[in-house]
């Protein structure tokens, strides 16, 4: 698959694409190639059904609509490449159908959990049948705002329990430190001293989150855990929605945008402004109710 990706990059260069476009397209297609490899799908076997399943998966991962549409654009170019190289002659991408339509005024809306929903979530993870590991997953998502990709890559040495900080290597290998609140530290210590020690991978793995089968939790398992916790709730649990909730709450409590940007690991304050200085759906609904 690496050779295919390199051939695709060269094809984009010859087509006159900019360095940034090639970089973005390559990242998107690299993720797609990993997805088909995990499912033993050959390039020549990629079908319309596979694309639709992939689209559903990336939509459910909590990505913004604009990001999903960018990935569709990348896949369209990759589809053109496969056809031109006679690797797969099927037109599997249909941009008009595959791109998600955005209504005017809806761009960059952030979907967050309400205070009532947060109470239900925290109550659900306090149930006896919820393991300490699964409770810790929810606490980390809510109280640090980490991305799910960052969550599964957290290692034990990334924590400094004396200073109460978590070190995260985020997008583009960007480093940041996130303070841990007392609630999170308490659950973390309980997990480290009990459940994790009992896992058969504990001695050989530096990763924080383990499963019975693996020394490192996969992001799909995080989604499964959240579905399991939320099975009795009247709303779905989504990793990225926790992230949006974290930073929206901080903004509402008066934390400055520069600090929020640093905690979120954004490349610039403009990115933070784009998402968190816009009103949420709930705020818009509340405003309309005043009419």
From TrEMBL:
<dbReference type="Pfam" id="PF00589">
    <property type="entry name" value="Phage_integrase"/>
</dbReference>
<dbReference type="InterPro" id="IPR044068">
    <property type="entry name" value="CB"/>
</dbReference>
<dbReference type="InterPro" id="IPR002104">
    <property type="entry name" value="Integrase_catalytic"/>
</dbReference>
<comment type="function">
    <text>Site-specific tyrosine recombinase, which acts by catalyzing the cutting and rejoining of the recombining DNA molecules.</text>
</comment>
<comment type="similarity">
    <text>Belongs to the 'phage' integrase family.</text>
</comment>
<dbReference type="Pfam" id="PF02899">
    <property type="entry name" value="Phage_int_SAM_1"/>
</dbReference>
<keyword id="KW-0233">DNA recombination</keyword>
<dbReference type="InterPro" id="IPR004107">
    <property type="entry name" value="Integrase_SAM-like_N"/>
</dbReference>
<dbReference type="GO" id="GO:0015074">
    <property type="term" value="P:DNA integration"/>
</dbReference>
<dbReference type="InterPro" id="IPR010998">
    <property type="entry name" value="Integrase_recombinase_N"/>
</dbReference>
<dbReference type="InterPro" id="IPR011010">
    <property type="entry name" value="DNA_brk_join_enz"/>
</dbReference>
<keyword id="KW-0238">DNA-binding</keyword>
<protein>
    <submittedName>
        <fullName>Integrase/recombinase XerD</fullName>
    </submittedName>
</protein>
<keyword id="KW-0229">DNA integration</keyword>
<feature type="domain" description="Core-binding (CB)">
    <location>
        <begin position="1"/>
        <end position="83"/>
    </location>
</feature>
<dbReference type="GO" id="GO:0006310">
    <property type="term" value="P:DNA recombination"/>
</dbReference>
<dbReference type="InterPro" id="IPR013762">
    <property type="entry name" value="Integrase-like_cat_sf"/>
</dbReference>
<dbReference type="InterPro" id="IPR050090">
    <property type="entry name" value="Tyrosine_recombinase_XerCD"/>
</dbReference>
<feature type="domain" description="Tyr recombinase">
    <location>
        <begin position="108"/>
        <end position="289"/>
    </location>
</feature>
<dbReference type="GO" id="GO:0003677">
    <property type="term" value="F:DNA binding"/>
</dbReference>
């Amino acid at each position: 698959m690496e050779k295919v990706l390199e051939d695709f990059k060269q094809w984009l260069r010859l087509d006159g694409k900019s360095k940034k476009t090639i970089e973005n397209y390559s990242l998107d297609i690299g993720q797609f190639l990993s997805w088909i490899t995990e499912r033993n799908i050959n390039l020549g076997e990629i079908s319309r059904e596979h694309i639709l399943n992939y689209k559903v998966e990336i939509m459910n991962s909590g990505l913004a609509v604009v990001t999903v549409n960018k990935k569709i654009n990348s896949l369209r170019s990759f589809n053109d490449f496969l056809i031109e190289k006679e690797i797969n002659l099927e037109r599997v991408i249909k941009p008009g159908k595959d791109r998600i339509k955005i209504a005017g005024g809806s761009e960059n809306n952030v979907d967050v959990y309400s205070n009532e929903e947060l109470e239900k979530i925290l109550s659900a993870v306090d149930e006896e049948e919820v393991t300490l590991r699964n409770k810790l997953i929810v606490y980390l998502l809510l109280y640090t705002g980490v991305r799910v990709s960052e969550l599964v890559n957290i290692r034990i040495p990334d924590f400094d329990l004396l200073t109460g900080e978590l070190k995260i290597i985020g997008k583009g290998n960007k480093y940041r430190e996130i303070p841990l609140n007392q609630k999170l530290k308490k659950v973390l210590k309980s997990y480290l001293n009990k459940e994790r020690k009992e896992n058969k991978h504990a001695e050989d793995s530096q990763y924080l989150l383990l499963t019975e089968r693996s020394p490192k939790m996969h992001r799909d398992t995080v989604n499964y855990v959240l579905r399991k916790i939320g099975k009795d709730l009247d709303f779905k649990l989504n990793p990225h929605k926790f992230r949006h909730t974290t930073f929206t709450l901080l903004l509402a409590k008066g934390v400055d945008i520069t600090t929020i940007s640093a905690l979120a690991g954004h490349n610039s304050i403009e990115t933070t402004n784009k998402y968190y200085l816009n009103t949420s759906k709930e705020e818009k609904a509340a405003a309309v109710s005043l009419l």
